[in-house]
Amino acid sequence: FDFYYYFSCESCIQLAYMKDSVITCLGCNAQLRKQSFMNQRFDDTGLEKENSIRKKYLKVFNKTRKDFKELVEYNNYLEMVEDVIFEAIEGGDSALAAENKLKEYQKQNQASIITNKKAKEEEDILIAKKIADEQRIVQEKRNKFLLEDQQELTNKKLESQKVMDDLAKGKISAKELKELDRKKAAQAAQKQKESSKVSEPLPPISQETDKSATTFTYQPTNKPLDQQQSGQQQQQQGQQAVQAMMYSEPQPIGTFKYDQLELNNLVPTQQQADVAGFKQKYIKQRAFEEAYQFI
Amino acid sequence: MKFFIDDLAVYFPYHYCYPEQYQYMVSLKKSLDEGGPCILEMPSGTGKTVSLLALISSYQLVNPTVKLLYCSRTVPEIEQATEEARRVLNYRNSQLGEKAPKTLCISMSSRRNLCIHPRVSEEREGKIVDSLCRELTSPWNRENPNSERCKFFENFEDKGKEILLEGVYSLEDLKEYGLKNQMCPYFLDRHVLNFANIVIFSYQYLLDPKIASLVSSSFATNSIVVFDEAHNIDNVCINALSVNLDNKILDASLKNVTKINKQIEEIKKVDEKRLKEEYSRLVQGLARSGTNRTEEVSADPVLPNDVIQEAVPGNIRKAEHFMSLIKRVIDYLKSRLKSQMVISESPMAFLQGLYHATSITSRTLRFCSARLSSLLRTLKINDINAFSGISLIADFATLVGTYNNGFLIIIEPYYQRQNNTYDQIFQFCCLDASIGMKPIFDRFRSVIITSGTLSPLDIYTKMLNFRPKVIEKLSMSLNRNCICPCILTRGSDQISISTKFDVRSDTAVVRNYGSLLVEVSAIVPDGIICFFTSYSYMEQIVSVWNEMGLLNNILTNKLIFVETSDPAESALALQNYKKACDSGRGAVLLSVARGKISEGIDFDNQYGRCVILYGIPYINTESKVLRARLEFLRDRYQIRENEFLTFDAMRTASQCVGRVIRGKSDYGIMIFADKRYNRLDKRNKLPQWILQFCQNQHLNLSTDMAISLSKQFLREMGQPFTREEQLGKSLWSIEHIEMQPASKPKNHLNGKNTQQDIQNITTTTTTIATTTTSATITTDDTDTVMNE
Questions:
Q1: How do residues B564-575 score in pLDDT, each as one tens digit?
Q2: DSSP secondary structure of B580-595
Q3: Is residue A7 part of a domain?
Q4: 3-state SS assignment for residue B257
Q5: CA angle, B648 as apex, B486 and B706 as ends, to 5°?
Q6: What are phi and psi of B8, to 5 degrees?
Q7: How many structural domains are present in chain A?
Q8: What are residue B160's phi and psi, to 5 degrees?
Q9: Which of A43, A82, A214 sits opposite B334 (nearest CB)?
Q10: Which is nearest to B238 in space by CA: B668, B690, B625?
Q11: DSSP β-ladder status, B610-614 and B527-532
Q12: Does A199 touch chain B (CB under 8 A)?
């Protein structure tokens, strides 16, 4: 079989093969079958041709390093092969010579060609498998990471949901929650410290020791200045009171001495409360307010 | 002054020493004694370089064979370090007097910075200087009696090899010496590098395998390697081993191939002997022996311990065979670039594809780079610059044939600005920074990684895959709190501000950012620097400010300058910004984190009194290469995606804000304007010396609170300040140092009774305890300290 490296329009060729299974080449009158056409991969048709010739020759000249004792011999062999291929590519007489060499070599090394071919095929399969494995592992890892991330996210969500629920049901108070958060943060900080294992910074930060020594120490604290101290202190106290009011929960109303049983009818079920987003206490309180409004 | 650390006498060129400098030297000493890598963080502007050089040069007195390789990033930084070294060595030698050993400290740079040839040195471009120089100095040119030669080089060849220099030579000194003796400074530099006690050069000379194998391969293994300003070291390692190819490069290299083929034909006709010589050399497996110093063309891109000492394979021994192979590789790459899809594959898969298409094996590929440089030498090609395309291909071939793990090939369309089209780009990217660092850790006894911003340290040890013997994070000891960090989460109207993608263009956020700048510009004297997350965001936000009329408000207080992506324009803006600060008008500089200004340019004293960071400077996560690297980091080193991104953003952020504090007499406000900074995971990644000032009242501020805080701070900083106050706290004299347990003078230990020792120790602890809250010397004082 022969390859002809001309550009042709694909649809024209398709059309030509519709009529006949063999077409004759316009340039050299050779008979061409459909199978002998191939897709062009490279820009340069010369390279296209070279590669196919190379493949054909390397199928026969397929000795490997294992077949030689000395590296030099192997290198010489490689060079010989390369020379033959070059001759074949050149075309004309030298191509014929190369063809002859190829045939001769094929005759002489029938056995080794076959075994090497087999070995090569096995190796190819192995490499293909390796590549497939590699890709699979990459994909698996990607999925795993994705899953981990998702899980973490849902865990976080669940946790905060749980906290919200607890708050809603009055299982824990906001103060307790704050305490909990602080503990968690401290834990995280501790963990990070342990993992980084960084030695302590050299001079420990101490602000109190030499406040008197440095007259112009910039104290970033919002400490009230001397003149305004008294006035501000009061203000601060006021602020604290406001803060306390803001942050503390409304006082529990369990101290009312009314019949609990009767009240239970007023209180919605857990589910109702959750849906409404009310706290039980408020509901009770409201019920009371409503009940005694008209008195 | 001279003091002891353990048993080592340290010659420190100043009369006073900062406590953190002392601590730094103690840690350094420890790591030198133990050997192995070490990682140290020390606040910027507290004299890192001088303490490093002082300790190591004193260490060299005891161990004279030890060589110091000091790596920095840029030429100005190299010059600065050389000047420090000069001061340190002068002081040391003047103290030692007659006994002073002969020391040579030399800085190293490229031909562009060292050439003194009247014609060649005119050129600006480094590559052109290189190729012109090669043209004049190549052996084949010098053999030709008619050609022009470089007389400086000839002189060096004649006499230069015997020259032994002594003293400290900066790049300018070398040039001067060269002019005086009519000798080429570059080659002289390369020559004496091997005998110098201290070598100061840039990262590339050690990390880029192409350059390292030419320059640094002869350094002894007991050398001390220092990477200063090393916070970006992982990126340097990765860039050194990555190759990017696009159609332009491939076309250029195809042209190279035809040109080389033509030359081969010509040579065959004229001088076939030469090719044959090369051939026989290759047969004997001497691919690399042909290289000698003067005819360096290009070196292997592969790390020294991966180079196979083997003969070049037979199938590329002949020049035309090799060219055919390169041509096939290029064509295969071209065919790969045709697809319009995003492809990522491992080097193994790529090699297999290449084999099926062109029957080229990886073993052959591995030798491409060596074979090409041998061929170029044989063809007597000087103009390496013109053949950069083909050498890039050969480098790529060698890398892809050598490495599999830690590398990835990504082919993706990439946007071209000029003609508004998408072009495919072929990226062979290194994902593992430790590949580049490994030979250095393996080879040298002590490797020291240091910078002002290395927090969090553990991520570096993970990424570069080493076990540091010494880790130290130093905080700043000050008499007064000269840093005022403000973590700003809300505007004055209590609307939270952030550059999160979904809210960044909200009018409320943009307005709050703008009014922040207006208010800050009204209270802060002199220079203010603002950093945005990207050029596009800066453009967008500034145009909105303009519409709102905020820019005019700022202009009543200060002038505004803007950094652009054009370096010349930015340089001009910077120059005028400094002028405005000097003249007292005051100015605002709008620039971009990760831009030119954010690294390497100092805004000391009046040039920077306040930095505003608008948003967290996250890296663009759309990049495929970055995605691949993140995945790799997670897989290999268990570094979470988010962890790395935050780490990277925070190191950029701390680099940006670190620009304003360049010494203890300096002071500045750092405003982190994004609500995300308030979260613990972000804040914790700031360096220790910023965190130490970040108390509760600096967190979760709104604009008005930050402004009042800053006002108070600035008033405080405006007070006079004397050196006496700092003594013993943020400044130590010799007496203070001798109180330290590690540095008690010897006679104390032997002669006096133990009770005093105990007393000494107790006083030491108290000094340490009181050291923290304070410090600045007025500028005049600094000068006197320096002069003394």
A1: 888 888 889 999
A2: HHHTTS-EEEEEETTS
A3: yes
A4: helix
A5: 5
A6: -100, 125
A7: 1
A8: -60, -30
A9: A43
A10: B625
A11: parallel
A12: yes
DSSP states along B496-533? B----TTTTT-HHHHHHHHHHHHHHHHHS-SEEEEEES
Name which of B326, B331, B694, B731 to mutate to probe chain A: the one with the most chain A Cβ atoms within 10 A of its Cβ. Answer: B331
The CATH code of the domain at B483-717 is 3.40.50.300
pLDDT tens digits, one per residue of A21-77: 666 665 565 666 655 555 555 556 677 778 888 888 888 888 888 888 888 888 888
Indicate the residue type of B547.
E
Rounded to whole angstroms, the Cα distance separating B450 from B132 reads 37
The bridge status of strand B224-227 relative to strand B198-202 is unpaired
Q: How many residues does chain B have?
A: 788
Q: Which pLDDT belongs to residue B587?
A: 93
Can you read off the two tokens belonging to residue B710? 């800053």
Average pLDDT, chain B: 83
Residue B723 has which token pair? 């050196």
d(C-alpha B497, C-alpha B615), whole Å: 9
Task: List the one residue out of B622, B683, B680 whose CA is nearest residue B649.
Answer: B683
Interface mutation vs chain B, best among A62, A67, A72, A82, most B CBs within 10 Å: A82
Q: Which of B396-410, B720-734, B762-776 shows the highest mean pLDDT?
A: B396-410
Structure tokens at B613: 């960071």
Written as one letter, the residue type at A243 is Q
Count of pairs with CB atoms under 8 A, one residue in A, one in B: 165
Q: Could you say which DSSP state residue A223 is in?
A: P
Q: CA geometry: angle at B520 spanning B517 and B525, to 5°?
A: 125
β-sheet bridge partners, residue B496: B490
Smallest CA–CA separation between A281 and chain B, in Å?
31
Give Cβ neighbours of residue B667 (< 8 Å, ≥ 6 apart): B482, B483, B484, B609, B661, B717, B776
Contacts of A70 in chain B (CB under 8 A): none
Question: Does the residue A19 lie in any domain?
Answer: yes
Q: What residues have CB less than 8 Å from A273, skipping those under 6 apart?
A: A168, A169, A279, A280, A283
Whether A114 is in a domain gets the answer: no
Rg of chain A over Cα atoms, rounded to whole angstroms, equals: 44
Tally of residues, chain A: 295
HSE of B414, CA atoms in CB hemisphere, 13 A: 16
Tell me which amino acid residue A270 is. Answer: Q
pLDDT digits (tens, 9 = 90+) for A113-122: 888 888 888 9
In the structure encoding, which two tokens stand for residue B529, read together? 């620097």
Has residue A22 been placed in a domain? yes
Q: In this structure, what token pair is assigned to residue A243?
A: 């803060």
Distant-in-sequence contacts of B761-766, Cβ < 8 A, 24+ apart: B763/B739, B764/B739, B764/B740
Cβ of A192 under 8 Å from any chain B Cβ? yes
DSSP string for residues in A86-151: HHHHH-HHHHHHHHHHHHHHHHHTHHHHHHHHHHHHHHHHHHHHHHHHHHHHHHHHHHHHHHHHHH
Enclosing domain of residue A17: 1-39
B339 is written with which tokens? Answer: 């697809």
Give every CB contact of residue B159 below 8 A, 6+ residues apart in sequence: B183
Q: Which residues contact B177 (CB under 8 A, 6 or more apart)?
A: B165, B169, B183, B185, B188
